[in-house]
Amino acid sequence: IMPSLVGSEMCIRDRYLKCWCPFLIFNRIQIMLKKLNQYFEEVLCTFFLSVVFISVITQVVLRFGFSSAAVWAEETAVYGLIFATYLGASLGIKRREHVRITFIVLSFPKKLKVVSIILADILWLGFLALMIVQTIVYTKLLFDVSYVLPGLKIELRWLQMFMPLTFCLMVYRVLEVYWEWKKTGWKGLPL
Fold first, then answer.
1. pLDDT tens track for 127-161
2. How far apart are CA 190 and CA 110, in angstroms?
3. DSSP character string of 29-50
4. CB under 8 Å to 127, separation ≥6 — which residues?
5. Quick one: CA dihedral 4, 7, 9, 10, positive or negative?
6. CA distance 116 to 41
């Protein structure tokens, strides 16, 4: 049982709850989104690689142990590996661990280093934009026809929609690197 508050005590309590409750909810949402942004690719890559592992092990056990096969196992392994690959590419962008010839760039003077890295990223963004457009065109074509995967019994269009989304995620990660670089006052290199 809560003790009853009177006068100014009740007013202070009510003001405190009205001011801080929305802030606390917003703060929790902000923390949750930060963690999602931090671990999104890692969690999904782990999940899809686990799907690949389980599918392949299941297929091997069924083929050699029981002389049969699971119809779905090969397709889940293939698409799990494709999804993990694209998410891994996005993770590489986020961590700035993509294959680059940085030993040459690092020998340049500072201004030339920055210019060459920015130019490379502009070319990378152009490639990503091209891939987004082309994968959207291909996905739209799949909505005009019906192609059901024989093992999974689902339409290919639903799996194909993952491709433009991952390219958009890669664009977001490149822009995020530059946003973080801006927050440092443009110090160092956007690596």
1. 999 999 999 999 999 889 888 888 889 998 899 99
2. 12
3. HHHHHHHHHHHHHHHHHHHHHH
4. none
5. positive
6. 27
